[in-house]
Design a protein that fits this description.
Elements: H1 2-28, H2 36-52, H3 57-80, H4 86-105, E1 109-111, H5 118-126, H6 129-151, H7 155-165, H8 167-172, H9 177-203, E2 205-207, H10 214-229, H11 234-257, H12 265-291
Antiparallel strand pairs: 1-2
């Protein structure tokens, strides 16, 4: 049982970075962006390809982050300049990136066995891959959270949040709304790709299909966190996403322990997210009946 908790903690920390990226467009900008399904494997593909070519692990990871931001820039351009609705923008980006990721990988998957990844480098220092995953995930979450808290207290960060809260009012206050949306796309997809790069190194391979179901995992982490903590301040929201991601991974690992076929995990994930989205409305209606 301890091994399952440790595995869920390490995986949850790494996946929470992706969920925080989804949070930017989903909660701050209120855009239904599906780009995560393309930028997540983009991060893994870029990192794996560079590592296979002999690049240092840290440099490969940072370049994967930048690649995700460029993918977000494309999505932001489609949405703001070409006036394509957010949902269709995400579909276009993830569809286009499928081919891009294939070109980057050169084949459907790239193995990272015997390659000096971030996890393997840290593992030599701390004495184990699982501990290395927890250390890297924990450090990455702290850095990402600190960057988010700092950035969204700056003038630009506040303008981005204002754009999401009330676009009309933001525009009336001379805030460049389109630029803020494009920036939000870039920030969110950059961290999604960063998560993909770290998870590819943790798993030991990058695969063209590793992004399937990414948006479900991100939304589930956000909603679980909100169910546990409620929608509170910005810092609490970020921490709740991390906790929600860990709880979600723990549920998935427990289900696998009970003997569920791994091929059915995506179906189970979709069912779990549907239940999580339904429960607040169900309990809300019950409370309304009790009050009346």
């Amino acid at each position: 049982m301890l091994d399952i908790v440790s595995s869920s903690l390490s995986q949850g920390l790494l996946w929470s970075i992706m969920a925080i990226g989804v949070y930017v467009t989903f909660r701050l900008l209120h855009i239904a962006d599906l780009s995560a399904e393309g930028t997540f494997p983009l991060g893994g593909a870029v990192a794996a390809s560079l590592l296979s070519a002999g690049w240092p692990a840290l440099a490969a990871t940072l370049i994967a982050w930048i690649a995700g931001m460029l993918g977000g820039l494309v999505g932001g351009f489609l949405h703001t300049k070409m006036k394509i609705p957010g949902l269709f923008t995400g579909i276009l980006v993830l569809t286009g990136l499928y081919s891009v990721n294939l070109h980057i990988l050169g084949r459907p998957n790239v193995t990272l066995i015997d390659i000096d990844t971030v996890m393997r480098s840290v593992g030599r220092l701390v004495g184990g891959r699982l501990i290395a995953s927890m250390v890297v995930g924990g450090v990455a979450v702290v850095i990402v959270t600190a960057l988010f808290v700092w950035f969204f207290q700056t003038e630009v960060g506040l303008a981005l949040r204002a754009t999401g809260n009330n676009e009309t009012m933001a525009e009336a206050n001379a805030i460049p709304v389109d630029r803020m949306k494009m920036l939000g796309y870039m920030i969110g997809n950059g961290f999604i790709a960063l998560s993909g790069a770290l998870i590819a190194q943790n798993n030991g391979y990058a695969d063209i299909g590793m992004g399937i179901g990414t948006i479900v995992i991100g939304l589930a982490s956000i909603i679980v966190g909100e169910v546990l903590f409620g929608q509170r301040g910005f810092v609490i929201s970020l921490l709740s996403i991390v906790v929600g991601s860990i709880v979600y991974r723990l549920v998935i690992d427990l289900v696998l322990l009970l003997g569920v076929d791994p091929q059915d995990i995506k179906l189970f994930s979709a069912i779990v997210l549907a239940i999580i989205l339904w429960l607040p409305h169900r309990f809300g209606s019950l409370k309304g009946r009790i009050r009346t």
